Predict the structure.
Amino acid sequence: MKKLVILGGGTAGTLMSAKMRRALPRDEWSITIVDQDDDHVYQPGLLFIPFGMYERRDVIRSRARYVPKGVDLMLSGIDVIEPDDNRVRLADGTLLPYDFLVIATGSRIAPAELEGLTGPGWQKSIFDFYTLDGALKLHQALEDFRGGRLVLNVQEMPIKCPVAPLEFLFLADWYFHERGMRDKVELVYATPLDGAFTKPTASALLGGVMEEKGIQVETLFNAGEVDSEKRILSSWDEREIPYDLLVSIPTNMGSEAIERSDMGDELAFVPTDKHTLQAEVAPNVFVIGDATDLPSSKAGSVAHFQGGILEQNLLDAIAGRAPCADFDGHANCFVETGFGKALLIDFNYDVEPLPGRFPLAKVGPLKLLEESRMNHWGKLAFRWIYWNQLLSGRELPFVDSHMSMTGKKAPKDNPVAHVAA
């Protein structure tokens, strides 16, 4: 019996286990998925918890419920991966051999990477919302907030869901308006980027939305230290931003198991071929989702699009053929802008977000690079799609792994729209 081992039971690992269980003969292949606990968190929902739009019960379910029949779920920590010996050593010392390995270990926040962040103010005047515990505690902090300066800081890129910090500020603007105290709150966005977002077109649009909402943007702000007693965030170039409430997006890093295995880059993300998703460390190791070092967004939609590519390439590798499916960096993100509206952006490695309609030309029904209530409802509806379709590894209607130009308005001076910076 040959063995496929998948490390990580989040979005990427779960959908790949479903795809490969359907694709591989059960009498020839065993599939094992490993994660440290049984709590599957719907991570896009963490954004809504601080504002009371979602509760804990809305974002967490049992992993076992979504692991397909015929796939073994092992609840265990991972000690190290030993690619030279084709095995994984689990936290309890168990050795798990494999013929092929899929690394889907995701990413984690590492607040200790910023001096002072985890000091006396941590979870008192400083919070995150990239963890369930952090989002729940931030909800209480916002309920208790009576005014002052709220600063959101992205420590460094890359981060999971790069639009989430912007969405948080847009929702905060709405939240404080609804409480009748927006005039008592100063919202500040401190980012290491030179604009609101990574893609120039979307950055200009989103920066304009921030200006309209009265959100101050501090660009090229590379945080170096937090003084939680004085409530000051400082950058390496000695700029200082005072705050009353600091919402931090700490350094995002890959799994500690990748660090221990000496398989990652300086942030413990796995060096991966950007097109085939094959790990550089060995030809029988593939990587998907947030665990990669790819120049694509770390988001659930990206893991979904990668899944179709990885399935083809795994089957090619298993058959002794060179992987030929080509991931183009496709990402698709709803951006909540508050007041019941949202934007939608669709892009890849080479093509910036463009205006138009999605996924069908003329009829949409979703608008690209334009606020609409339909986009907001699309964002909320994605939770149902996530639990009921995406995790099962099924393709979404009219949405392909490769980005389509259908419905998009390409710039007149460049009809193929290869305009990304």
